[in-house]
Amino acid sequence: MGYLFDSRVILGVGIGFIISAVIFMVIPKKNISKIEVEKKARAMGMIYQSEVKALYNK
Question: Which residue range forms the structural domain that includes residue 42?
Answer without folding.
Answer: 2-51
